[in-house]
C-alpha cells in the first residue's frame, strides 16, 4: 500500500478545526499514527528569508527514512521546500511525503525514484482534499546512471563509489556531504546508490538538507549546503566523516566500485544500472566488503582530518577466494596439457614412420607441433611467472591477514571485557528481578542499598562550587576544601575496607571450623560419633572451639557494626552486607552443629583437657 | 572545614516532560565520543547513565573514564540544567491563536526583562542554559540588535512562523512511541545584593517559557505523540494572547470610533475564544478539575497590538505600572487592575464571548494591553514592514511581572495604594465582577 500526505500553512486544513501548518491532502484512509509521523518529518528551516533576493536558492530537502508505524516498516520519500509566504504573510513551506511498504520498493532505489518527475510534488495546487489511492511508483526503467554528475561536480565519478563503499563497510555511521548551493544532490545520490546491489539500495537513508531527525530515525547520508550554519559547525567538530563536494577533491581512492563507476562514466551505454552490469556490481560490492584491510584504515583517515576530502586509503587489488581457485585449477590444467604435449612430441618419429608417407607433410606437421609445443611452453612459463607473482601477493595478503588477526584478537579481548560487563549487569538485573518477584528481607536490603546510593548521589550533587565558594576565599581554596572532604571520605572508606578485610578473614576461619565439624558429622555415623567423642583430642578441640567461637563471633560483630551505614561506595556497602549475611549463616551453622553434637555427647561425660 | 548543607530540592521537575523525580535519580550524560547512542534519544545523542564513579570535583565518570558534567532527566533523557536540582521552576504558559504575535511578544518580553530586572527590581535575570535559549536569543537579536536596524524589513523576515517540528522541539522514543516535546527557554531569577530576599536562596526561581506554535492550541492537537501544551497544567501564570485585530467585531468598533487599523492585522479573522476554551478543557483534564470549579491560577488576557487601538481607551496612558518604593521598584497592582477594568469593559462590548470564556475558566482574570513593536508596521505591497530601530515594546513585561507580584512575592514586590476603610478587596477578579 502506498500512502501520501501534503503539508503546508493554510487557513483551513484537511482535518476539522486544523489551521496554520497542517495536512492539506492525504490518501483516503491514511492511518492516524502514520499521519502524525509524516507530519513530524515536515520540519524545514530556510537559509534565506522570503524578502531575501536569494530566497529562490533555498535548498530542497529530499529525504528517505525508514520508520515503524503500527508494527510495519515504511519507507518514507519526502520533498520539503520553502514556499511563498502563507495567508498570514509569514514564512511557509510545502512538504510532500510518500510512504511505501516493503513490497512496493522499485529496485532502482529511493533517490532514483524521487528524481522521477511526478513522484513528489513541488508545490501545492491549493485544493484541500483526500487523495485517491495511488498505483505503485515507476519500477526500474530509469535513465542510465553513468557517474556523469559526480564527474561534473568532483571531477572523478569514483567518489560516488567512495560513498557507496563506505555504506557497505559501515551502514550505521553517518557521512556528511557538504555541497555548494546550486548543486542538485539528489541525482548524485542516485548515482551512488546505483553502485550498490539492488537489494541494498533501500537500506540507505539520506537527506539532502539535513536537520535534526526525530528520535529513532537514522539518516546515513546527510547533505548540507556550505551556506548552512550547521556546515561550519560540522567542520569544527572532530571525528565526523565529511565529504566536501568540490573540484578540488582530486581522484578518488581506487577500489572495485570506483573502477566500475569510472568505466560506466567512460562508456555511458555500459551503465551499472543495466542488467548485464548487475553481477559486476555484486562482484565489486563483495570485493569492497571483503577488502578488510583497506576499509579498516578508512575511518582513521577520515577522523584524523575531517576537512580532508580524501576519506579512504587506496585499497589493495581486489581478490576473492573463487578467483584463486580458478587460477590454481588453470595452472594444473596447463601442466597436464604440457605433459600430454611432451608425450606427443616423443611419439612423433614412430608416428611419422608408420603413418606419414610424404616427408613434406612430415616436416610441416613437425614444424606445427614444434610451434605448438613452444607456445605451450611459453604459456607454462608465463603461468609459472604469474604463479610466482601471485605467491608474492599471497605472502603480502597473509601479512595483512596476520595484522588483521592481531586487530581481531584485540577486538575480541575488548569484546570479552564488554561481554563480562554485560554479564555482570545481567546478573544484577536478574538479582533485582528475583528480589522484586519475592518480596521480603531481600527487597528491604535492596531498598537499603538504593537509599545508600541515593545518599551518595545527593552528597555528590550537593558538592557544588556555587554553594561552597562563599565559605572559601577563592576557588582554589574551595577545590582544596573539596579535595580534603573527598580524601576524608576516601580515608574512611579505606578504614572500613580494612575492617571488612579482617572480618572476612575471621569469617573464613569460622567457615573452616564449621566445615571441619560438618565433615566430621558427615564422616561418622551415630555410633561412630560416640567413638569420636571418646577421642579426647577431638573433644578438647571441640571444647576449645566452643570457647573460642563466641568470642570470634562477637569480634566479627563488633567490627561489622555500623559499617554498611558508614559505607560511602555501593561496593563497600554490598561487601559489608555480604559479610553480615555470612556471619549470620556461620552463627546459625554453628548453632546447628552444637545442637546436633549435644544430642550425641553424654551429659555426664564432661570432656577433659589433654593435660588432665 | 565542614561542607555547606545541601539545598537540593526534594523533588525536581523536568522542564521538557514535566515529570517529577528525586534528585538522586538524575542521569549523567556520557562525555566520550564512543558512548553515543541513547535508547530514548537515538544514535546521535550521548548515552545517559547512572554513575558509580566520581572524580574529586564531584563529576561522574563515564564508562570510558571521562568526567561528565551534563545531567539528564531520568524519564525523557533530555538535558537538564543543574540549576533545576536546587531551584524551583516557575512555568509560564503563553497561548494564543496562530499569528497572534506570541513569538514577537516572547522576544520583546525577554529582552525587556533583561534590561529592566537587574536595575529596577534588583534581580539577576540570566540564561540558565544559554545553548537552549539560542533560538530566543536569535529572535531578540533580529528585533533589537539587527545590523540593518535602519532598513525596513518584512515582519516575516524578523521572526519566522513557529513550526510544529524542527529546532524548537525535542523528540524522545519510548519504545515504539515517539513523543515530541517543546524545547523550554530557561532563565534564572535570583535576588541580587540589596534585594530584601538576597539572603534567602530559596527565593530564586528558574523561569520556564515555551514558544508553542499557535497550531498546538487548536482543538485535537493535544496528543500523546505531541504533548506540547501540557505545561499549561504546571504554569503559575497563563498568558492568553488575544489579537483584537483578528476579530472583525473589534475592527468594526475601531472603525466606528475613527481608529484606523486596516493593514495592521493579518487581514483575516479567526475565532480566538475557541483556543481559550480548548486550553481550559486541557487544563481541566490534566488537573482533574470538576466542570464547575474554576482554575486557581491567574489568567492574564494579553491584548496585542495596543499601539494600533490605544485611542479606543478613555485614558490611553502608556506609562508602565512600576513605582519606586524605598529605593526598590514594585508593581503598582492597583494601576494594572484599573487598566484591566477599562480594557475589560471595551472587550466585553466588542467580544463578549472572549470575556465570558476567560472568566468562566479562571478565578482571577486580568486584561493587559501590550505592543511588542510599539508602533504599527508600514504596509507595503509585499506585506507589513518594520524598521528594527523603531521598535519600542510597550507594556510587554506587565503581564509577567504582575503575575510574579501575585505569586512570587518574595522576588517581585507588588504595591497597593491605601484603601479607604471598609473598602479592602482581596482579589481583582472580585473587583472586576463588582464593577460589572
Number of helices of chain B: 11
Please state the structural category of chain B: alpha+beta
Q: Helix amount of chain B, in percent?
A: 25-40%
Unreliably modeled segments of chain A:
269-275, 292-322, 464-472, 604-612
How many β-strand runs of chain A? 10
Tally of helical runs of chain A: 19
Biggest interface and which pair forms it? Answer: A-B, 69 and 64 residues
Structural category of chain A: alpha/beta
Largest sheet of chain A: 10 strands, mixed
Shape of chain B: globular
Strand neighbour order, sheet with most strands of chain B: 12-16-17-11-18-19-22
Q: Give me the count of strands of chain B.
A: 25
- What portion of the residues of chain B fall into strands of 2 or more residues? 15-25%
Element-by-element helix/strand order of chain A = EEHEEEHEHHEHEEHEHHHHHHHHHHHHH
Structure description:
The complex is a heterodimer of chains A (612) and B (436). Chain A is an alpha/beta fold and 612 residues long. In chain A, strands 6-2-1-5-4-3-8-9-7-10 form a 10-stranded mixed β-sheet. In chain A, strand 3 and strand 4 form a beta hairpin. In chain A, helix 10 runs antiparallel to helix 12. Chain A is flat. Chain B is an alpha+beta fold. Chain B has 11 helices and 25 strands. In chain B, a hairpin with a 2-residue loop joins strand 20 and strand 21. In chain B, helix 6 runs parallel beside helix 9. The longest helix of chain B is centred in the first third of the chain and has 19 residues. Chain B is globular and about 70 Å long. The N and C termini of chain B lie far apart (64 Å). The N terminus and C terminus of chain B are likely disordered. The chains are: A alpha/beta (612), B alpha+beta (436). Chains A and B meet through strand 2, helix 1, helix 13 and helix 15 of A and strand 5, strand 13, helix 4 and strand 14 of B.
